[in-house]
Specification:
Layout (H helix, E strand, L loop, with lengths): L4 E5 L21 E4 L2 E3 L1 E4 L3 E5 L6 E8 L2 E2 L3 E4 L2
Antiparallel strand pairs: 1-5, 2-3, 2-6, 4-5, 6-7, 6-8
């Protein structure tokens, strides 16, 4: 549903040095994609990203791009 949010759980979502606090917000967050649509990241941390669900229909892949590297895709179905 557009306007609602989704939490994406995983690892290595931040591109930051080991000295940075890995539990806190990323100093250099990446970009969240629902298919080819850029989503608004509401909260971006090393192991979890909360993103606003954009308009869409059907099923698409969610990916994150951090420091030029694209994550594995996770399937998402719009309701």
């Amino acid at each position: 549903m557009p306007g609602s949010s989704v939490v994406i759980a995983g690892n290595y979502f931040c591109h930051q040095s080991e000295e940075d606090d890995q539990a806190g917000p990323c100093s250099t967050p990446g970009t969240v994609y629902f298919g080819t649509s850029v989503a608004t990241a509401l909260q971006y941390q090393e192991t979890a990203v909360t993103a606003e669900v954009p308009d869409g229909t059907g099923t698409t892949d969610i990916t994150l791009v951090v420091a030029g590297e694209r994550s594995n895709a996770a399937s998402f179905t719009f309701e």
